[in-house]
Design goal:
heterodimer; A: mainly beta; six-stranded mixed beta sheet; 12 strands; 0% helix; B: mainly beta; seven-stranded mixed beta sheet; four-stranded antiparallel beta sheet; 11 strands; 54% strand
């Protein structure tokens, strides 16, 4: 079965530190990839998505992610985090080129940014 | 647009009671999803609809759970009878169009506590 793995469950950084959150998926075919963010007490919001074209995707709030097909990875990066980036981050994938609609989520990574 | 609307935002009930969660998708969206979020299991897709028709209910945990979508602007998720292990945050999400081409928008969630 398809799955999404987020290796870092809990990350603590100081402000201005660089961030990279790992995401790997297990599926050999066409995938559409997403990163969602959930701020404390709020619902999930889309950070960025990849479905074709340039494998380096830029999202909101200075986040970016790189799709590396050979590594089945879609890591999230930000050069300098802020206290307001404290949240839970979810990687997700829709597999296949058909219209299945099913988003498969990773377990999430909790990011805590210390001021 | 007001986004995906869920009600109630919080529900506290006793074991054995019936619980009904409600969702209004974004107007024009033809896909609707129900998710459950817990600390132990993360985000799980329970069921999703396309044009009001259930497409995949393989994530529904057991017969105590049922979901309906009587029209394009309303869906319910019912738990009868409820059990303490059903305590979780239940999210509804909606999307328009083909997989990957459109963003899935999440509602604010219903935090369910079963005593």
């Amino acid at each position: 079965a398809q799955s999404v793995s987020q290796h870092n469950h809990h990350v603590i950084l100081s402000e201005a530190a660089s961030l990279e959150l790992g995401c790997n998926y297990s599926y050999g075919g066409t995938v559409n990839l997403f990163w969602y963010v959930q701020y404390p007490g709020q619902h999930l919001q889309l950070l960025l998505k990849y479905f074709s074209g340039d494998p380096l995707v830029k999202g909101i709030k200075g986040f970016e992610a790189e799709f590396i097909k050979s590594k089945f990875s879609f890591n999230l990066r930000k050069p300098s985090v802020q206290w307001s980036d404290t949240a839970e981050y979810f990687c997700a994938v829709i597999v296949g080129s058909s219209n299945t609609g099913k988003l498969i989520f990773g377990q999430g990574t909790t990011l805590q940014v210390k001021p | 647009d007001a986004g995906v609307i869920q009600s109630p935002r919080h529900e506290v009930t006793e074991m054995g009671q019936e619980v009904t969660l409600r969702c209004k998708p974004i107007s024009g969206h033809d896909y609707l999803f129900w998710y459950r979020q817990t600390m132990m299991r993360g985000l799980e897709l329970l069921i999703y609809f396309n044009n009001n028709v259930p497409i995949d209910d393989s994530g529904m945990p057991e017969d105590r759970f049922s979901a309906k979508m009587p029209n394009a602007s309303f869906s319910t998720l019912k738990i009868q009878p409820s059990e303490p292990r059903d305590s979780a945050v239940y999210f509804c999400a909606s999307r328009r169009g083909l997989a990957g081409a459109d963003t899935q928008y999440f509602g604010p969630g219903t935090r369910l506590t079963v005593l």
